[in-house]
Design brief:
The protein is of the alpha+beta class and 187 residues long. The chain is built from 4 helices and 6 strands. Helix 1 packs antiparallel against helix 3 and helix 1 runs parallel beside helix 4.
Length: 187
């Protein structure tokens, strides 16, 4: 009956890709001493009664390597955008100039760099856990199929497929982490 069992590896791959994409987004939000508009992506502003991403209430620009500017479209939101940035934990002190908010990016000291590498490590660990959860789901599907009559050889084949997929994604996460930590520690 279950000789025609085919594990949906495309679904597992898609879900593991999601974990990698989420990790890259989180890494992009980490300050490395260089200005980047993506560092503001996780910052949400209470605008018009809803939590809104900062890039939907103003134009985010990087005019210099150590400066990010936000040209807020609605004057009434300038204070809320400034407050959201202050409370975001980015460690940046916004400066107002009319409807333009300037964010000077300070040099990172050695201690702050080490803290950021630890944060990057925790982001990577969350991604690894996500990948392992997808692996567990795949293994559960295989175990269920074994109960439905899947042969031992087929079970071993599918388990090794899922493990190989998991190993590939864990290596990608580790490579991304190593690259990000090197970028953070670079002076």
């Amino acid at each position: 009956m279950s000789d025609d069992f085919i594990l949906d590896t495309d679904d597992l791959t898609r879900r593991m890709d999601g974990a990698i994409a989420n990790l890259r987004t989180e890494f992009a939000s980490l300050r490395t001493g260089r200005a980047s508009s993506s560092m503001l992506e996780p910052v949400m502003v209470d605008a018009y009664g809803a939590m809104t991403p900062i890039n939907q209430v103003g134009t985010v620009n990087v005019p210099e390597p150590r400066m990010v500017t936000i040209n807020v479209w609605d004057k009434g939101l300038v204070g809320k955008v400034e407050k959201a940035i202050r409370e975001s934990g980015l460690g940046i002190n916004p400066q107002l100039n009319g409807t333009i908010i300037m964010l000077p990016i300070p040099e990172l000291n050695e201690e702050r760099r080490r803290e950021l590498t630890k944060v990057a490590g925790s982001y990577a660990e969350h991604a690894r856990v996500s990948v392992r959860n997808v692996r567990r789901d795949g293994m559960d599907q295989i175990k269920k199929a074994k109960g439905d009559g899947l042969s031992e050889d087929d079970q071993k084949f599918w388990e090794s497929e899922v493990q190989d997929l998991t190993d590939t994604y864990i290596k990608q996460i580790d490579d991304n982490l190593e690259t990000k930590q090197a970028e953070i520690m670079q002076v």
